[in-house]
Structure formats: structure tokens, C-alpha cells
């Protein structure tokens, strides 16, 4: 799963809004395994970014740029051991 916060902080569907309301200045993206808990699976990858504003839409836009790259990089990294056996 891909989540718009630095887990374990700000779990759930409104993570960005929670973080903005709290006043954080460092946001992030987490890719994690899914388990039976809410956003509680083991973390695979994370990347942080600084944002000093208060607009959740801006945070989402900045995060999506990171999400797209981090997701692809993480999939490649996870598949790399498999490709060495072909």
C-alpha cells in the first residue's frame, strides 16, 4: 500500500489533513505491506519532504510526485532479486 504520511504518524484516510492541522513541517510518503491493522504493515520505503504551508491540496500534489517515483523504484527494488534468477 502507498500512504501519504510518514507512518506510523497520521494513519487513515485523512492523513494529510491531520498532519496540516497538527502543524507539521515535514510530510512524507510511506509504502508498506498490508496487514490486518490500519496502515500498520511493515514499512518497505519512505521519503520525507519539507512543506511550510497549510494547504492540504498542495501537500497532496507534492506527495504525488514522490509517490509516482517511489512506487516504481520500490517495485523495481523488490523485483530485482527475482530477475537475477531468470
What would you say this structure looks like, in words?
The chain has helices at 15-22, 56-83; strands at residues 2-3, 26-32, 43-50. By secondary structure, the protein is of the alpha+beta class. A three-stranded antiparallel beta sheet has the order 1-2-3. The two termini are 27 Å apart. The model has no long low-confidence stretch (mean pLDDT 94).
Please outline the helices and strands:
Elements: E1 2-3, H1 15-22, E2 26-32, E3 43-50, H2 56-83
Antiparallel strand pairs: 1-2, 2-3
Proportion of β residues? 15-25%
Largest sheet: 3 strands, antiparallel
Overall 3D geometry?
globular
Main sheet strand line-up = 1-2-3
What would you call the structural class? alpha+beta
Specify the number of helices.
2
> Roughly how many Å apart are the termini?
27 Å
Helicity, as a percent range = 40-55%
What's the rounded overall pLDDT mean? Answer: 94
User: What is the succession of H and E elements?
Assistant: EHEEH
Rg, alpha carbons: 14 Å
The total count of strands amounts to 3
Task: Offer a concise description of the structure.
By secondary structure, the protein is an alpha+beta fold.
Provide tags for this entry:
single chain; 86 residues; alpha+beta; three-stranded antiparallel beta sheet; 2 helices; 3 strands; 20% strand
